[in-house]
Amino acid sequence: MAQTPSPGAGSVLDDLLLYRLSRLLSVGGSPVIRLCEGRFGITRREWRVLATLVEHGGKGLGSSQLAELAQLDRARTSRAVGSLVAKGLMSRSQPGGDRRQVILRLTDAGHAIHAELFPMVREINAQLMAALTPQAAQQFDESLARLQARAQALVSTVADLPKADRRRRTPSGA
Predict the structure, then answer these.
(1) What confidence score (pLDDT) does residue 131 get?
(2) For position 168, what pLDDT does the model report?
(3) Quick check: is 168 in a domain?
(4) What's the CA gap between 129 and 123, in Å, rounded?
(5) Nearest Cα to 102, choosing from 136, 138, 66?
(6) By C-alpha distance, which of 102, 96, 54 is closest to 74?
(7) Domain count, the chain
(8) What is the CATH number of the domain that holds 85?
(9) How far apart are CA 39 and CA 20, in angstroms?
(10) What is the C-alpha to C-alpha distance for residues 151 and 158, in angstroms, rounded to an integer?
(11) For the stretch 41-74, what's the b/e string if a residue is b when 16 or more beta carbons lie within 10 angstroms of its beta carbon?
(12) pLDDT value at position 174?
């Protein structure tokens, strides 16, 4: 007897959990992107870096800390930080003149954008979550926490796989 695939691990693309989550983010996140880019002149990634710095960087954060907390690679974080600094929304300082260490902080303008944009993003999220009953929302939240923990555990199992090199046009070993 054939075994039925578990939910989220189906045999067609539309059954795959990560594909469905990606589609949800694409559709559900588009109002956030429009707000960020159209109204505030920042990208979604810049918003993520800015919001992460507000959440975790009361006294400032180093670049590596910020990248880890935002769950972005260092290169993407560096580009977002450079853009936010150029826009006057974030500042860099080097404590004691040590060029190896950089502390990142939001400027008053960065805090002002966060103060205006965060309630709008929160409302978009509330509208999405309104599709669920309070009980279903709680179960969904618990399920997301379990999925996040499982995903973090899976990361260690792929440590021996080659890292992405988007400049390479063929898979490694081909």
Answers:
(1) 96
(2) 65
(3) no
(4) 10
(5) 66
(6) 102
(7) 1
(8) 1.10.10.10
(9) 28
(10) 11
(11) ebbbbbbbbbbbbbeebeebbebebbbbbbebee
(12) 54
Residue 122 within any structural domain of the chain: yes
On whether residue 84 sits in a domain, the answer given is yes
C-alpha–C-alpha distance, residues 88 and 105, integer Å: 11
Burial tier of 154 (Cβ tally within 10 Å: 0-12, 13-18, 19+): exposed
At 6 the pLDDT is: 65
The torsion region of residue 89 among left (phi > 0), alpha (psi -120 to 50) and beta comes to alpha
Low-confidence ranges of the chain (pLDDT < 70): 1-10, 99, 166-174
Tokens of 133: 């009953």
What's the CA gap between 71 and 55, in Å, rounded? Answer: 14
Contact 87, 42 (CB under 8 A): yes
**Residue 95: what pLDDT?**
78
61: tokens are 């954060």
Residue 60 structural domain: 13-156
User: Closest Cα to residue 49, out of 122, 88, 105, 119?
Assistant: 105
End-to-end CA distance of the chain: 37
Host H or E run for residue 152: helix 134-157
- For residue 93, the cross-strand partners are 103
171 domain-assigned: no
